[in-house]
From TrEMBL:
Superkingdom of the source species: Eukaryota
Stated name of the protein: Uncharacterized protein
Amino acid sequence: MGNMLLVFALYFVIVIPLIWGLKFLYKIWWRPKRIEKQLKKQGIHGYPYRLLYGNIKEMMKLAKETKSSPLGSPHDAVPLANPFLHKLAIAYKKTFVVWHGTSPRVAIMDPKLIKEVLSNKNGDFPKNEISPLIRLFSTGLAVYEGQKWSKHRTDCQPCLSYGEIKANDACIFYFL
C-alpha cells in the first residue's frame, strides 16, 4: 500500500509536469520552428521566429522609428501605415512570412495569388479563428463561412457592382 502511494505521488509530481512541459515546449518552439523550415522549403522567407513574441518587437521598433522621423511624400502612405510590412515587401518581393506570436501569417503581394485566395471556393484558405464573444455580436460577410458566406456574397454582389456604385455616387457624396 505504501509503495502504491509513492508511485502515484511520483506520477503526479514528475510525469504530469513533464508532459505539460513538453507540450508547452512543442507549442512555443518546436512547432513554429518546424513550420518555419517548411515555409523556407517552399520559398517563403521572412524574419526568423522569435520565442513567444514572434516579430512583434521588430514591428513596434519600426513603427516608433517611423513616427519619430520626418514625413516624406504625403502620397507615399504605405511606409507610414505599416513600416514593417513595407520593409519586408521590399526585401522579399512577392510572398513572405510574418510571425504574430507563435502563429505565422503569410503575406501575399502577387495579384494572381491574391485573386485565388479571395475567390476561395474549395475552403483551402480558411479564415482566422474569431473568438466566441466577437462571433456573438458580429454578423456579416466577414464572419460567415461556407454556404452561408456564399449566399450572402451573391445577395450583395449586384449592390456592389461598379455600375451601381457609379449611379449612386452623387447620393453618397451628398450625405458626406
